Structures are given as C-alpha cells and as structure tokens.
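Form 7-S
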Amino acid sequence: MAFHARPRQALAIAGAIGLALAATACGTGSNDKGGSSNAGSAECAPYEKYQGHDGKKVSIYSSIREIEADRLDQSWKQFEECTGIDINHEGSGEFEAQLPVRADGGNAPDIAFIPQPGLLQRFAERGQIKAASAETKAMAEENYPADWLKYSTVGGTFYGAPLGSNVKSFVWYSPKMFQEKGWTVPTTWDEMIKLSDTIADSGVKPWCAGIESQDATGWPATDWIEDVLLRTQGPEVYDQWTTHEIPFNDSRIAEAVDRAGTILKNEKYVNGGFGGVRSIATTAFQEAGVPITQGKCALHRQASFYANQWPSGTRVAEDGDVFAFYFPAIDPAKGKPVLGGGEFVVAFSDRPEVQAVQTYLASGEHANSRAKIGDWVSANKKLDLANVANPIDKLSVEILQDEKSVFRFDGSDLMPAAVGAGTFWKGMVDWINGKDTATVLQGIEGSWK
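Output:
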C-alpha cells in the first residue's frame, strides 16, 4: 500500500518553512497569484523555458494534505512568481474515491498526483488523461530511472513523471541498543536471521509487527510478502505476479510467503511488547515499532514514512534513539531489490500552461526546491543529497539513486483493487491468525478470476 495519510509529529517546521520562503522569494515585484511575473530577474533564469503563460491558472488534486500540502505550495512558489502561473492545489482524504467521480462527471482537475499505477491505467484506458508532452517526457527520461517510468506508461504512451517517493525496504532498530549489546547491523538475509536468533537467545523478542489499519488492515503484511518475493525470485517473477501472468498461488509465491513466515509466524521472534504471533493482527501499524524505544523488541520492518510515527521527542538518526537499515538482500550478487511507492503527475488537460507545470514538476529544480523545505524523498536523479536534511530521507534517496538498486512499486497497488486492497489484505490477516499458506493463496487467486 502506498500509505499517504501520514500523521506528523510536532516538528520544528515554522523555521524551516520561513527559511524556504526566504530561499524561494523571487525578489521585489513578484506577482500576487496571477499578476505580472518577475521573469526578467536573475532568480528567475531557471524558469525561462516555462514563460508565456502569465495570468493562467492550473488546478491540482491529490491525497496530500495539511503540513505536506503547505510544503508543496512553498515548493513551487518561485515557479509561480517567475512564470505568472497560479497553481491551485487541493488535497483530499477522499482522493482515490472522488477522482474517478470527478473525471467521469467532466469535472476533472488539470493535474492529479496519483499514487496507484492501477488507477492511472484506468484513466488511460478510458482516454481521460492526456499523453505527456515531448518536453515532459524528455525531462522525465533525463531525471528518473526507467524502473519508475514504466509505471506511468500504458500501451506504450507515457503519461507523467513521479513526484514524491517512499522506500519500504527498511528495518528500524535502536542504535543505542545495538551498541550496548554489541550487535552489528546485518548486510545479508542470513546475517539478519543469525542476529534474530542471537537477540531471541538474550531474552528479547527480536521482532515487533502490527498490521491493523482500520479498513486497510493487512497492508503491512502485504509489504512483507512483496519485499521477500523480490529477494527470493527477482523482479521478473515479481512483475509476472503483479500482472497475473502467473497465478497468485504459484509455488514461488508460496515460497516467499513461507519465508516471511519464518519471521512473522515464529513465536520465538514475535511480537515483542505485544504478545504472540496473533497479536500482530490486532496491533496498529502506527504503534507496532514503539516497543523498540522501550527495549522490548529490536527490529521492525516498515517504510521510510514510519519516521513520523515514533513518540514525540524520539531522535531519528544513525546515532539517535532509532534509525533504519536496508532490508537485506538474500543474494547481494543479484543486485539490491528496493520496494517502494510514490505519486505520478498526470494531466487531464493539455493546455500549454498545464504542460508547463507538469514538465516543471519533473525537473531537478522542483525536486531540490521541495527537498530544501524538509521531509521529502524523490527518485529524481537531479536531487542533491546536500538538500536532504532528514537522515532517513537522505538514506532513502541514497538507495533510490544507487545504480545497483532494482526498484519495484508496491505490488498491491499494481493489482486490481478487489485483490490488492481486498482479498490480499484480508488473506494476510487470516494467514497471521493461523490459516495455512496454500489455503490463503488459493483464496486470493480465486478472487482474481
């Protein structure tokens, strides 16, 4: 699941946003949301290619809300002031449900940030979104790996570049606990299992986990299966699985589920701070890693965005209270599998000013503008690590920019919603609660038919 409604801790953001405003100010004479632009100033030189649309308006609709939405507004402020284009962004908790309604009713936004490739494909097949301009396509191909761009390409037509990203292939831990116990961060799967045994023998449950998420209960377990499948079978089988070229109950999928079960269904390993294996199904994913801060468990596999779930005052850093390491590959010689998610910038209109905004959002200028404001991860190759202050975000960008990384999008978001956000989620709950792998996978396979 590409989790987007991410609660934020009380961060010291006012100063960061103030600095960003100062950094993005375009000097005197800036337009007031639609007035004359400041195109001639030196600060506006990077935006020359986007000129000619003074006074035009572009609407954007997304699931990004609250403080993240405010930060987006700041990230394109200089672009607005230098081009005269007025960007109006609306974030909604009902985005996934309402966007199809608006599109079908002829009331689509100019641009949408779509986090599910399957939903993007739906709009493409109905002819509701526009092919990206040649400029946007060229910008995207220059700045993003091909692994990303295939998710916004349908029937050979490219529809838009990624925007934000997240990395799911992480294991959270306490650097202080590791130092005190003499434990070393593992770099292979075998080392991680050996470490788990060492921790268990010390009297601490090595792993904590939680898959309860209200109507979306089960999604954290699907991430486990996806991450393990990438490591056991590689990207080709993963792609065949997400497109149903091989059945859900294929023996290779069962093998990955069973390997995940050597951790998640191992009473010796889980569930530190909460109980036994079955407690995983009733533990809220937001709370699942907290026992690490209490010394009750040592490891928690969860995405980069989990940095925002730790109790207030928890320091996230390599030498802090908590940090994360890359979820190790089983055979490092085969590359560095990376599971993640993100949003894609697609357009329902091909007006010139809309194309200009879509191209700009694929640029290095925007990626760096947004990163300077804080709490941002992007797969954009032009993103300068010096502009990424948050340690876990910096580690995420390093992984995404690593040439050895083999990226694949969250599998449940690639599947039909009835499966990926339905029977797959539910099946994982049944599996945690004791149902055998073969029965669970057969049930999910039957739902796909």
